[in-house]
Each structure stands twice: as structure tokens, then as C-alpha cells.
Amino acid sequence: MTPASQQTDLIQRDRARLWHPYAPAAADLPLWEVEAAGGVRLRLRGEDGTRHEVIDAMCSWWSVIHGYRHPALDAAASGQLAKFSHVMFGGLTHAPAVELAERLVDMAPAAPGRPGLERVFLADSGSVAVEVALKLAVQFQTAAGRPRRQRFLSLRGGYHGDTFAAMGVCDPVDGMHSAFPGLLAGNVFAPRPPAASATPETVQAWASGVAELAAAHSGELAAIIVEPVLQGAGGMHAYPAECLAALRQVADRHGLLLIFDEIATGFGRTGELFAADHAGVVPDIMCVGKALTGGYLTLAAMLCTAEVAAAVSGGQAGALLHGPTFMGNPLACAVANASLGIIETGTWRIDVGRIGNSLASGLAPAMELGAVRDVRTIGAVGVIELHDAVDVTAVTAAAIRHGVWVRPFRNLVYTMPPYISTAADIAQITEGMTAAVAEVHEARLREAGGREAGGPELRGQRVPVRAGSAS
């Protein structure tokens, strides 16, 4: 096969051999080839040979916060490659891993009178970090003389990853429980937290319900696990920070560990460095990933308090029972240090605030569309929620024609743009998202007879469509 034919036939070759996330192994799977990337833009080639330069409004599933080909991250990768790219972490250590652990501990949520997060376990991915956190919680309870505590209290609407233990604490309806009956652990699920605009009375009623549920199951629960402030792949649902304080109280009352899954929310995405900082709450265990390396390499981390680490280390096993082959990969750690170095300059806060304001104003016109149920933002996250399930293929193609790459799911068309996005970039993203919804769903609505914007016909109905975000 000649180089030219290889290039032309790349999408067909992909379909013959590769399997993509949340997709069938199909000969007609919609695909676009990425030919180049730089800053906030991707250069795409379609199957028909057409090329488009688009803004990556997805931040490559929320990870490329500094943009593509960032000089500091490129330099960190090149510098570490010149030394060594990998060594095993069993019995060995290296400077990039130690520096990364120190940075993460220094950045972690803190509160007066509360133990901080002082110990770091480096993992391969977000899902693995969650697996480690869950295993740690069970080992902690066993070491504390409570071996029956092996279940978890999670929230409906939550998403924590696609490995087995992580799936077991995802939403039991919109998650993947029905696909693996009998294999996922039977955990306890509290109601989804109220929306961010909820009244204090509504928040208190929710908190009281969670407290009663935890009390009823306290003898079998090891920990509470939540995505703080923003549930991501479960519906881009933002909720009041006061809910986190209520969960902290419940955990303390019943001797449960509190786990915050900050894989999607960490490193500034919601307007604070960590979503926990909105409430001034410190968890016992925290998971981070995605943006940790600026999207360059897969890496995640689990942080915990010294008390938790000491209890497990002094338990019967004498160790946390997990050890990935590529744990603490030096190349990934070096790039992560460079990424965190950019975050430590503090400019992310200005950028996220600026982007958030532009998303709010830019997406507001979408509420005039009858196909749209809601528009909401939090930090550098913008969401258009439809009444009906989104036509992913059609909306994606329409957005590309407007110079924007999005990956809708369920009934949501959303964006989490890179922090380096300019005002013009955000304007193009919001205009492209709104235009794509109008061209696809508004047009179909008109053909079907129409509905007044925000009409009651489908308000509150479930949209039985699931697609997650690789973590």
C-alpha cells in the first residue's frame, strides 16, 4: 500500500481493526481523522476528503486545558525522554514522581482543624484511581476492626469510571448495571442532589434524607463517594456546595470515609482549584486525573490523609493492595509537573472566570429554541440540555461545519473548552453549538409541528440514553 493510499484509506482501516469508546465495531462508524493539532484547534479530514479546522470545545474529554503543543509541556516531555521514559516503581523512585506528589499535596484542599491529604498513590487512569480509592476504604475499615463495611454510599446521577468497582458506584439506572447483572457490587444510592439553584430548604431536605439512608446502612458502609459540585457524565448536573458539607457531617457521624472524585472537576474547571474548595470541605480520599498532565499522557492520582495511610499500612495486609506496571511513569509525571506549574501561576482563575461569563452570555440565545429544555454554566463548563435525546452524528457534523468540535451525549450538547481559549474562540464555540442544535433539532421540531420554547410536554421526562466519558 502506498503512503498516499494509506492516508486516503485511514478511516476504513480504522473501522476494520479498531474499537472506539461507547461505539459498536461497525463498518459505518462516523469518524474524522485528526491530521494536526495546535493551540485550541484540530485539523480534521472527513471520509470524503474534506478538511475542517475546528476549535476543540471538548478539551479532548476535559484534559487538554492548556491547549495542544504547549511549549512548556513539550519541553518537559522532551527533557524526560532524554533521561529515561519509564522505570518500575516497585523499590525504585525518581524525581518527577516525588516532585509531583509534593505539588499535589501542596495544592490539595485544606481547612482549619481538618487533616490534610498527605499521601499520594499514582495510578494509570481515572477509573484506576477510583478503584484504588474504593479498595483503600475497605482496607481501612478492615484495619479499624470493621470488616463488614464493604459497601459504598453513592449518588444517583453519578459517574466514576468504567472498570468494575467504579461501575458499581455509578448511577444504577443510567450506568451499566443492567449490562452486568450479578457482577457489580450492590451499593447504596442516595437521591441526586438538588440543582445549584435550589433553596436552602430543598438542600436541607435532601441532606436529611441522605443522613437517614446512611444511618440505616452505617454498619455495612465503608465510604461515601461523590463528584463534588458537578456530576459530569451523569448529566452535567451542578448542585449546591452545601451538599458537600452535609456529606462530611454524615461521614464523620458514622465513621465513614469521604471520597471526592475530582477527576473531571479538578484543576480549576468549576471556578475553584478543586470543586471541594467551593464548600471548604476536605475529603479523606481524593481522586484526580484527566487534566493532570494537560492531556499529554494518561496519569491519575489518589490522595488520602495520613491517618488513612497509617491505618492501612498497619493492617493485616501491611500495604495498599494495588500496583500498576506503569505506576509513577516518569514521562507522565514530568509533564504533569509542567502542567501543574502552569496552574500554579494562578492565571487559570482569571481565564476560567472570563470563559464562564462568555459561555453564559453566548449560550443564552439557545433558550429561545423550542428543542432546548435548559442552558446552564458552571466555571468553564457550558451546557445546552435538549428535551429529547441528541442526534450525536448529525449535531457533531453540523458543529464541524461551524468550526467547532463537540461530542454530545444523552440529551446534552456541552463544552469544556481549554483555558487558553480567547473571547473569539468562545464566541465561535457558543454560536456553533447553538447553530448545530437549531439546524438539527429545531428543524425537526418545526417539521413535527413545533413546541413553544421551554414547553411542558417533555419537561421532567427521562431521556433513556447513556454515553460516558472515558476516565
Instruction: Give the C-level CATH assignment of the domain at 73-345.
Output: Alpha Beta
CATH superfamily membership of the domain at 73-345:
Type I PLP-dependent aspartate aminotransferase-like (Major domain)
Quaternary structure annotation: single chain
Which architecture of the domain at 73-345 would the CATH scheme give at its second level?
3-Layer(aba) Sandwich
Query: How would you classify the helix and strand content by structural class?
Result: alpha/beta
Number of helices: 14
Q: Portion of residues in helices?
A: 25-40%
Strand order of the largest sheet: 4-12-11-10-7-5-6
Major beta sheet summary: 7 strands, mixed
Structural write-up:
The protein has helices at 3-8, 10-17, 59-62, 71-81, 95-107, 126-143, 164-168, 200-217, 242-254, 306-313, 330-344, 347-363, 392-401, 423-447; strands at 33-38, 41-45, 51-56, 117-123, 151-155, 188-190, 221-226, 230-231, 237-238, 257-261, 285-288, 300-305, 372-378, 381-386, 404-405, 412-415. Mean pLDDT is 93; it is low at 453-471. The relative contact order is 0.15. By secondary structure, the chain is an alpha/beta fold. The strands form four sheets. Strands 4-12-11-10-7-5-6 form a seven-stranded mixed beta sheet, sandwiched between helices. Strands 1-2-3-15 form a four-stranded mixed beta sheet. Among the domains are: 1-23 and 31-49, no CATH class; 73-345, Aspartate Aminotransferase, domain 2, CATH 3.40.640.10. Helix 5 (95-107) runs parallel beside helix 11 (330-344) and helix 8 (200-217) packs parallel to helix 9 (242-254). The protein has 14 helices and 16 strands.
